Amino acid sequence: xxxxxxxxTGSAGxxxxxxxxxxxxxxxxxxxxxxxxxxxxxxxxGDTGWNLELLxxxxxxxxxxxxxxxxxxxxxxxxxxxRPDVVIHCAAQPAHDFARNHPVLDFHINVTGTLNLLExxxxxxxxxxxxxxxxxxxxxxxxxxxxxxxxxRFEFVPDPAIKGLTAHGINEEFPLQGGExxxxxxxxxxxxxxxxxxxxxxxGMPTVxxxxxCMTGSGHSxxxxxxxxxxMARCLMxxxxxxxxxxxxxxxxxxxxxxxFVSAAHTICLSPPEPGTAYNLGGGRTKSLSVxxxxxxxxxxxxxxxxxxxxxxxxxxxxxxxxxxxxxFRNDYPDWNSEWSLEDICRDLFxxxxxxxxxxxxx
Length: 363
Fold this sequence. Notes:
Rossmann fold; NAD(P)-bd_dom_sf; Epimerase_deHydtase
């Protein structure tokens, strides 16, 4: 399959908008679904309207659909009309704290919405490649892994007895059973992830779950509750205070740029794996950093100090350490390569929040 029709949910969000641009440039007819729920979740900072307008100006083959994935009839009509060759499902409620405070809404968006889309595809285009933007938060009990503490970060203690823990990080064999460090949000994403897998196994649909970790890029509308590195860059550029929630800022994540994530999704579309396959996809150990290390990196590149406020209480469902072992994906797709370095990612975020007054202070 060279080109065709692609349906992208959450098309004005970070991964969705990157998907629109990527597939549009390849010549696909792009159908985007987005109703800017992020603005209702998080306020003006989360508003993705600016991104939608940018996509409308730049994309050659974008048709935008303002609908809610919780509406099965609306999705059914759209999928029946479009009959896409590829589905990239990015729409979600993405924040732990929001999910904790609004569990029913979180469930209906992340789980029911995914089920609605799967069922619409099963009934109308079961042969379409279905890529689900899952999450590293599906894994429970990550916080039960023994760890050490250095001056700037926590680190896993290697233990061959722990299934799914390797020298590279967490792989797909790590258990999904609940535990500290998953929370309501992660539980909903795990339920959706399992549905995507099961539709592949039961109905033979080419479904794939991509369990991303800390995706970021200039297409983000970051807020305090979601998108830590982009929000940190926003705070630095705009002179805001950045709150560090718990763990003394030593919590660790691996970072992947949205372009690299979407290029991996496209690679899957060209050669789908077994139905119901799940992959971890992040920056890996070489692109991991703690909150403290992220602050230092951004400050050193910008030549300016971040106003950081350290709080004792960690967020519910927040992993102390998470690093993706991407070996399974890289073994299946050896020609794929992650192109964006941490420094390139930071420069991209600075450009997103460009401010003439800020750059005037940089000399």
